[in-house]
Structure formats: structure tokens, C-alpha cells
Amino acid sequence: xxxxxxxxxxxxxxxxxxxxxxxxxxxxxxxxxxxxxxxxxxxxxxxxxxxxxxxxxxxxxxxxxxxxxxxxxxxxxxxxxxxxxxxxxxxxxxxxxxxxxxxxxxxxxxxxxxxxxxxxxxxxxxxxxxxxxxxxxxxxxxxxxxxxxxxxxxxxxxxxxxxxxxxxxxxxxxxxxxxxxxxxxxxxxxxxxxxxxxxxxxxxxxxxxxxxxxxxxxxxxxxxxxxxxxxxxxxxxxxxxxxxxxxxxxxxxxxxxxxxxxxxxxxxxxxxxxxxxxxxxxxxxxxxxxxxxxxxxxxxxxxxxxxxxxxxxxxxxxxxxxxxxxxxxxxx
Length: 332
Prior knowledge:
This protein is mainly α. 52% of the residues lie in helices and 8% in strands. It contains 14 helices and 6 strands. Helix 2 (52-61) crosses helix 3, helix 8 (184-194) packs across helix 9 (198-217) and helix 11 (247-257) crosses helix 14.
């Protein structure tokens, strides 16, 4: 679910129709074509594939709001799919935390998505919505529509254990019968650098194999340049998120990364107490609370239902400690 697909209600509707047309284009429906001149007045019936153009035509010809138009398209598609025995469809989107309503632009794509699928559920239409993303996703859903909590079954995927991480690294190599594999030392290093998070395991393994190919082409001994890969990860994954924060917000994030267990949950009071020992200008409880709300909107901080906070991005604390020197310590 890219940001461009969720920038407006119309773009989100376009995304859903485009994805749906992939499975409907193999089906047809009976349509009446206007009579040809000189061949009588009776309309000609023909079977028409349910392409993107057909679905878009239904969307554009349906009166009402974008939600009304989208419901009409989905209900039409369900009727045809169900008649063909394939009425069960899963709409699965990753990076769904990109979805958000924008009040100042009067665009509510997230609310639109929830409204449409809630309507489908009430009509027993078996279209299933599966959303995955960072921990900020579910609070966004509930903020957009309070009934979202009843619409979804929430599953939290924790980081992998050491054994699971090792399987994630080695089993794909074994399954592909790849002639190149990792040494035990390399596997342990990748587990350590990735922190057990699947995306980072994937990133390190992909980059390592790219390096292996280059080393083999040059006739060099194969080695894993983990420090270089770590710097690439910092640039590709963390730097863009970090650049959104102001100088004062970076100080607060640095204080969080300096907590005893920065990757775990913390309270505002723990943050404020830690800042008193690290900063010349520490944070008051109210100031810290306001900044955490702003950082949550930027997707850097996550607040759970029990009033505790954590980094929304895995291993962000380690990135901050590696790359941000921090402000000057308080003077005596």
C-alpha cells in the first residue's frame, strides 16, 4: 500500500479496482450492444470480459459518493465471481500504515476503505481485507473508525527467535539447492545485526549474495562485509525516517535510545527522568507528551492502549546510537 495509492479517496478506489480486475478479467457478463444501422432495432447481446475498463465504467456511472461507487463495483464483481464459484477474495496489503485520512485536504481514504468493507461484511459478501504494517497501523484504524476494532482480528508478529532466524537464513538456500551458503560465523553475525526481524534478515542475506556474486566474478575469497551492509541499511531504511525529525525531536529520540531497554516499551515518566541526567534542557511531562504525539504521527513512535510508548521502527534505537552523537551533556 504505497503512499501514492492512499493519497486520496479516488486513488485508493483506483488501487482496489485495479487489483480486482486481475481476477475478474477472466470472467464475462452478458451485455447489450446497441443495434447496428440497417439491421433492425433489436439490441445485440454479447459476452464481455470484466476488465478494468468495465469496472471503471461501473464506478463512473454510479451516482453518489466515491464510497457508493466503489461498493457498486465490488458488489457487481462479487455477484459474477460467486456465480463462477470463486466468490472468496482476499485483498492483502503490506505497508498499510501508509494509509491515513487528511482532514485539511478533505480526503479520507482510510475511512473510505473501512466503510466499504464494513458494508460488504454486513451483506455477507466474502471479500476479506488483510492489512499488515508497523505497530502504528491499528491505532490509525481505530482513530479513523471506532468500529474498526470489531472488524479485525489483530495478530502481533514478534521478532524471530535465534533458531527461527537461523532457519530463515538457511532453509531458502537449502530449498534452492544453492551452491553457495553461509558459514556458521556469518549466520551468527546476520542474526546479531538483524535483531531477529524478518525484513532485516532478508536485507542482509540479499546484500550478502550480491557481494558474493561480485567477489566470485573477481576471483576473490568470499566474505561478508557486514559493516558495509549495515551502512547501506542505515541509508536505505533509517535515514529517510530520521530526516523527518526536528533537532529537538532528535534529542528526545536519542534519550529514548539511551534507556536501559530502548527496544521495549517505556513511559513518559521514564523518558523525562532519563532526560534530566542527559540534557541541559530536559523535557517536562507535557512537552514530552506533545512531542511523542507528533512523532507518532510521523510513524517513529507507537503508543499502545495502555499508555506506554515504543519505537515504531525496529532497531531505530541502535541506528540513533550509531549515527547521532547526541547533545552536549549537562554542565555541573
